[in-house]
Amino acid sequence: MNEPRLIQKRDIIRGVRDKWLRAYQSYADNYRVAWVDNRTAGEIRRHLHALDLETCSEEDVNAAINAGSSWVSNDCDMCGQDAETTLRIGQEPDYEARWLDLCENCVLSLSVHFHTKP
To answer: DSSP letters of 21-74?
Structure first.
């Protein structure tokens, strides 16, 4: 079991390039991915390499990949909200790992259960 830790959107942005490159490493540069604008894998790689991951926005990342969905979502596993910050509880993501990412509102709402008498 790992210590709980905060996951910020910036953490996700910092890792998105490597995550995408690992997921699509076997795609040839000229392979057209079947997404919104039919870019090639090589074009997306170039767009991702051009990003400054310390300053770019979620919108910048999504425009670089243009998959029609966000690669930077930080969804709460309890309410489904895309949060700026979540608290990860459990084991780090790995094969058969178990963890929850919870937003601040859900963590606070859970705390009442410790103060409620059965």
So the answer is: HHHTTTS-TTPBP-SSS--BHHHHHHHHHHS-TTT--HHHHHHHH--SS-SS--
Q: What's the pTM?
A: 0.82
Q: How far apart are alpha carbons 36 and 39 in whole angstroms?
A: 8
- How many Å from the N-terminal Cα to the C-terminal Cα in the chain? 28
The single residue listed with the structure tokens 């057209």 is: 32
SS3 content of the chain, % helix, strand, coil (to 5): 40, 20, 45
C-alpha neighbours within 13 Å on the C-beta side of residue 22: 5
Domain ranges within the chain, ordered by starting residue? 9-65
**For 42-74, how does the pLDDT look when each residue is reduced to its tens digit (9 = 90+)?**
999 999 999 999 999 999 999 999 877 889 999
**Whole-number Å distance between alpha carbons of 114 and 111:** 6
